[in-house]
Design brief:
Layout (H helix, E strand, L loop, with lengths): L14 E5 L3 H12 L3 E6 L10 E3 L5 H11 L3 E4 L6 H6 L1 H18 L4 E7 L21 H16 L2 E6 L2 E2 L12 H10 L4 E4 L3 E2 L2 E2 H10 L8 E4 L5 E2 H12 L6 E4 L12 E2 L6 H8 L6 H12 L1
Parallel strand pairs: 1-2, 1-4, 2-3, 4-5, 5-6, 6-11, 7-10, 8-13, 9-14
Antiparallel strand pairs: 9-12
């Protein structure tokens, strides 16, 4: 195992521009704020549940990026920009590629020399193997993966950056959210409401709780973090098995989960294995006093927090 050496923690009170005010971006901003940093969310529209500073930014527009960076004066950047809907990207692959590449290029040009963390995806792999560590060769199987891989290369070429590839992120979201819900929240709301949930039993992932993603993302802003780091949860589960774990946590019958092939619905364009492993993560977590929860513990913690 490669050991990570040398750290220089960011000074309290530094300012981080978090580009993307969705589910993950808000969690990262909250984590940074809790440790005493100033975290400014940036997006085209104000976040639905805004609880801190926000600046308007169109990441695909160079002038907008330059204005936002000048206004905020960030010491660091966390890029969580989209589009991240795999199905949408597959329907419009050219536009998806243009948006991801433009955002990466515009933001790194607007903030040269700033420490940058790009949140990327397990979709940069073709899904044939459940073992994808930092040394694995990339081979995106869908448009979203291709767009993110291109953005990775732009950010890493720009200078002091870490690409943090993250597996499927989950946590609570309100049932009336304006966009699609993450898999956990979608299952939980429907199961709670007495509905049945169809979930593929032939598509596997290594899910990560959003609070754990936020903690690792904040820590990755530290100098000395590897240029590439994988963040997958400790459990490899099919979506169907995971939905059954969610049912258990809610105390509802597992029979409400209907196992289907991924080709049956919106998961057709997902790789068979959207899984991440790592040769660096254990040392990184130990160094920063962090841990990543498995799906049973994650579901339990979320249920307790919601009760």
């Amino acid at each position: 195992m490669t050991r990570i050496t040398a750290t220089s923690a960011p000074m309290p009170g530094s300012t981080t521009l978090v580009v993307g005010s969705g589910f993950v971006g808000r969690a990262v901003a909250a984590r940074l704020t809790a440790r005493g940093d100033t975290a400014v969310l940036a997006s085209r529209r104000p976040p639905a549940r805004q609880s801190g500073p926000w600046v308007r930014l169109d990441a695909a527009d160079a002038a907008s990026c330059a204005r936002a960076v000048k206004e905020v004066g960030p010491d660091r950047l966390v890029l969580v920009h989209g589009p991240s809907d795999v199905t949408w990207c597959e329907a419009d692959p050219v536009r998806a590629a243009e948006l991801h590449a433009a955002a990466a290029a515009n933001l790194t040009a607007a903030a040269p020399g700033r420490r940058t963390v790009l949140i990327s995806t397990d979709n940069v792999f073709d899904g044939t193997s459940p073992v994808n560590d930092e040394s694995a060769a990339t081979a995106p199987a869908n448009a979203y993966g291709r767009a993110k891989l291109a953005a990775e290369r732009i950010v890493r070429d720009a200078g002091d950056a870490t690409v943090l590839r993250v597996s499927l992120v989950y946590g609570w979201e309100p049932a009336d959210s304006a966009k699609w819900l993450n898999f956990f929240a979608a299952c939980a709301h429907r199961l709670r409401g007495g509905e049945r949930v169809e979930a593929p039993d032939d598509q596997w992932t290594t899910p990560v709780l959003v609070d754990d993603v936020a903690a690792v993302s904040a820590a990755a802003l530290t100098a000395g973090t590897p240029g590439l780091l994988h963040l997958g949860g400790p459990d490899r589960v099919s979506r169907a098995a995971w939905a059954e774990i969610i049912a258990d946590g809610l105390g509802v019958p597992r029979s409400r989960v209907v196992r289907v092939p991924k080709a049956h619905g919106r998961y057709a364009s997902r790789p068979t294995h959207t899984c991440l492993t790592s040769t660096l993560l254990d040392d990184f977590l130990l160094q920063h006093g962090l841990r990543v929860r498995g799906v049973v513990e994650g579901a339990r913690d979320l249920m307790e927090a919601a009760s």
